[in-house]
Amino acid sequence: MSAVVTPGSVQTAEHSQSHRPDPNYLTHTKGFLSWALTLDHKRIGLMYLVGILTSFLLGGILALLLRAELFFPGEQMFSNDGYNQLFTLHGAVMVFLFIIPSVPAALGNFLVPVMLGAKDVAFPRLNLSSFYLWLAGTAFFLVALFSTGLDTGWTFYTPYSTLTQGPVVAATMGVFILGFSSIFTGLNFIVTINTMRPPGMTWFRMPLFLWATYSTSIIQVLATPVLGITVLLLAAERVLKIGIFDPAYNGDPVAFQHFFWFYSHPAVYIMILPAMGIISELMSVHSHKAIFGYRMIAFSSVAIALFGFLVWGHHMFTSGMAEVTTIIFSALTFTVSIPSAIKVFNWLFTMYQGTVSLVTPMCYALAFLFLFTIGGLTGLFLGSLSTDRHLHDTYFVVAHFHYVMMGGTLIAFLGGLFHWWPKMIGKMYNELGGQISALVVFIGFNLTFLPQFVMGSRGMPRRYAQYDKEFEFLHQMSTVGAFVLGMGLFIAAGVLLSSLFRGRKAPANPWGGDTLEWHCESPPPFYNFLRPPVVKDPYDYSRLVYDNRVGGYVERPEDRASGSHK
Amino acid sequence: MIQPWLLADEPASFWFPEQASTFASEVDWFFHAILWICIVFFVLIVAGMVYFVWKFRQRPGYQGSPEALHNNALEITWTVIPTLIAVWIFVRGVYGYLDMMSPPTETYDIEVKATQWNWSFKYPNGALSNDLHVPINKPVKLIMRSEDVIHSLFIPAFRCKTDIVPGRLNIMWFQAIKEGSFDLYCTEYCGTKHSVMQALTVVQSQEQFDAWLAEASKPPEDPIEWGKWLYERQGCKGCHSIDGSLVVGPSFKGSFGTSMEMSNGEKVTMDEQYIRNSILNPQTQARVNFAAKINQMNSYAGKLKEEEISALTAFIKSLK
């Protein structure tokens, strides 16, 4: 049972309508408007994918520029103002344009209805408008990018953001619009999962990716409006000089931080929960074994979503809040760590007595376990009050959040992309190339961010365009790592893009998964399923066997059921 | 002017600068305790991962079993033990934190003024300094305020940090246990020169500190020297250079007596009256190209006495 390509399984990439009675969702209608006005969740997902990957490229270039500037301690290519704009835009582009939408919009939109055996989401038009809202918000952001001076940091702390000259209003209006994109997506998924599960798919027979998506959607709907109000208040303050946050008019700057982090902390769970959902799928499918402790993973997803609303103050331990407040926030912060730890153990033990296949998605999933563990464990130093007093606002924090957001969410996103690429695009990619990309990304990532923990505990503050000479060597290691990481990401992009032209045609089930998306063609027809598929346990691998002629997995002849569409 | 990146706190151990305050030993010990806990869990997880990948890898002749597993004893253990560890870490963190937040009743108080992009430390006898001099082995309390945006005072060697929020006073205390000079950074992003808004924390024996304080309390008698002394301590240096380079506001070099174009088109000569007006009512006039930047300059009305303004004028006059 291996994924080796044998001569018999290689098929040509092209297919004409005359050979296939059902055109897939990519080909069944043509023309710009058929995409621009599509209501097909799969096309919307694909458009989102292109959009967010472009944003990721932009954010990544900004990162490489700022790491290059930091190679030497003094001013190099950029003035202090230039550097301040670089880190502001890097953060804002990555957080708002890339990471928050990434998994739900690009992968979730595609997968949620298919995993439910449904034809589309509950509200297809709302789905399309989510996409256009994302585009509009992005446009505002690009205005901020190309006009001069947005240099507040992605966190827009007052009173600096009320006083500074840059395009704060344009950027915050972009955030406001993007917020609606996120809210509508969340709303759509909640209704879809609540009301469109097929007969037989009780809550505890759902794929874990859907549990993750559902928990994320709750956060999106409840938390994002708070961000919307916050940026509106900030814009109003700038324009009308009301005095909410600006002490010159009797406002309270720390109130802004409370407002901002009340959303932005749950936002990081919007980022990580879908990624955890992906890892649950990847670990299970590529170990050919049902997930260990399904219920605990499901419950922990909801627990993380709910507890995540209670801990925002841990971003503000040094701001001057009362001790009782900080102590309570510290205690609550530790409660969120436990469900995450449980998930890591469950994923690990999914491999126990399974059949582990080290294909590219699995390489990324294993990288996730390594990197997310480091990210999560380093949160312990920051949640605890005495160590945080030293580490807050240093590079230790920068390293921590890159480990969880990038080593966590991005790595899981890439793993998911490689995992579902055959389903979405209908092509297999070069497996060795994919594995190499995972290795280079892994090495580059650690080289970039491990030195930053040490820098931070040694006292290197964040958001510094210039720094003291004693930090030079660590910064240089970090910069070299960043370029290696960038190279790995370009390799991954190259592998996927070249599959568009040279990849062999993907079978319906290349990996041997049992969730419903593997029961339709690759790529799926525009209607997903002709008849609602029969719903069984989503992690029952005993019925699947590898078929060399097809180059993928099929149901064992004795188990072949009538509902699957082959 | 010392280039900031030449000031260095060489790390005393792999993770930390020197332990120069009473807080440092607890923070460092506790950090290492958490670190070891993390290492244990990390090694268990990664070793487990490598072992399982190896032992259960797909290969000819091996067939794993696809059924779901669960093990109540294991799952309870790996929930309870991390919970207990998390509780311990939380409690120990509060213990160190309460010490940091509870200044002793008798402290030597220093007022800190943070502005974009300058530190100014004011001692009980009125002396002003740009660097934070403190006596060794005495509890010191900093009463901190900002004139503009949020800053944060961080002394890595002391392991302490507190934000400085405009509109309120934030307090931080420490007790230095080692003589020497240690970095003092601004660590809450505050604009253009955030990364170079640095000072030194100079810990001295009581005798040396007293001597320093006596010197610092006396502004220079010569008016030009006094003007320069004020230029360095009252925040002018943060935005105006004296060597012709553009920082934020115009350089003072060679500007006295010259005719300048204002942003409203008028031509004005820089004389004593102009300087006095710029200090007391900066927002009423701006040179051309500085109309936007002038908003960042606060008025010094009530903060500088007339003699001090004269001294500053004498200093600016002297910069040919």
Outline the structure in words.
The complex is a heterodimer of chains A (566) and B (320). Chain A is mostly helical and 566 residues long. Chain A has a single domain (19-559), classed as Cytochrome c oxidase-like, subunit I domain (Cytochrome C Oxidase, Chain A). Chain A has 15 helices and 2 strands. Chain A has helices at residues 32-36, 41-69, 80-115, 124-146, 160-163, 168-195, 208-240, 253-286, 294-307, 323-350, 360-383, 385-391, 395-425, 431-457, 472-502; strands spanning 544-547, 552-555. Chain A has a two-stranded antiparallel sheet with strand order 1-2. In chain A, strand 1 (544-547) and strand 2 (552-555) form a beta hairpin. In chain A, helix 2 runs antiparallel to helix 3 (80-115). Chain A is globular. Chain B is of the alpha+beta class and 320 residues long. Chain B folds into 3 domains: 24-57 and 71-100, no CATH class; 108-217, Cupredoxins -  blue copper proteins (Immunoglobulin-like, Sandwich), CATH 2.60.40.420; 223-318, Cytochrome Bc1 Complex, Chain D, domain 2 (Orthogonal Bundle), CATH 1.10.760.10. Helices cover 33% and strands 20% of the residues of chain B. In chain B, helix 1 (24-55) runs antiparallel to helix 2 (72-100) and helix 4 packs across helix 6. Chain B starts with 23 loop residues before the first helix and ends with a helix. The model of chain B is unreliable at 1-7 (pLDDT under 50).
